[in-house]
Write a structure and sequence with these properties.
Elements (H helix, E strand, L loop, with lengths): L6 H10 L5 E6 L4 H12 L3 E7 L1 H10 L8 E4 L3 H13 L5 E4 L4 H9 L12 E7 L7 E4 L9 H17 L6 E5 L10 H14 L7 E6 L1 H5 L1 H7 L11 E3 L3 H14 L3 E7 L5 E2 L7 H26 L1
Parallel strand pairs: 1-2, 1-4, 2-3, 4-11, 6-9, 7-8, 7-9
Antiparallel strand pairs: 5-6, 5-10, 10-11
Length: 314
Amino acid sequence: MEQRTHEKYQRLLEFCKSLRPTPTAVAHPCDESSLRGAVEAAKLGLIAPILVGPRQRITELAGKHGLDIGGLQIVDAAYSEESAAKAVALVREGKAEALMKGSLHTDELMGAVVRRETGLRTARRVSHCFVMDVPLYAETLIVTDAAVNIAPTLEDKIDIVQNAIDLAHALHFKEVRVAILSAMETVNPKVQSTIEAAALCKMADRGQITGGMLDGPLALDNAISLESVKIKKIDSPVAGRANVLVVPDLEAGNMLAKSLSFLAGADAAGIVLGARVPIILTSRADSVTTRLASCAVAALVAQARREAAEKAVA
């Protein structure tokens, strides 16, 4: 496989140099990769991390791997669930504008996030987006939802689509072109995802979903290949040029994202939206560049939210 250049991620990181570091609660950074990710992101000025976890363990880990955490705040928490709860509390107290997963299980972190009394719920449904740098595709691709919503209903998909559109605007997409994916490009009463795709597009026409151009159902080739669009004679401003791909369910999304990663050499930065703050979800298998890109995405989302709040006050 050819050497990955990360061109789209590098542009993202360059843009973030103009932003102030985002205060970020890092939940349980108790392995080398998660602690290193937070430290490297801090060095680049992407985030101002608050490390939440067992103080002695984090300090010993930093010493063992030569990581300088001298200037970083540590909030002591004895175990992973307490780390998640305290990290969420920092957000509720206004001390953090983003949340970052450390070495705890995703379920532990998200459990604290969605808890009704003490979590970070909003009116929106929480959903996950992969921001993908695919070497052979001209634009940055957003794929949603491949990690949180297992079998989303039509109602869920309204928020999933709107979260993705809002993310695209935070990432300064010039135009947001959303493809609602299925196995075909025609509405088939026997295939539920095609009916829901058509409904989502009509909702966008009526202003129930805003900020992007929607088309669907579209098969994957119709969404990203202009040649396929030409052959099938599809007349659409989205088809062949999509930069947001909305999948029917988690299984389809997971397979699509991993296919792009392992067969097309793509990198996938992960972010969860729909909570009070952006949540950086990383995997132990993520490269340093991918971790930094995830932090950059969260920084841009946090900046967009600050600007929206300032406008609302004005």
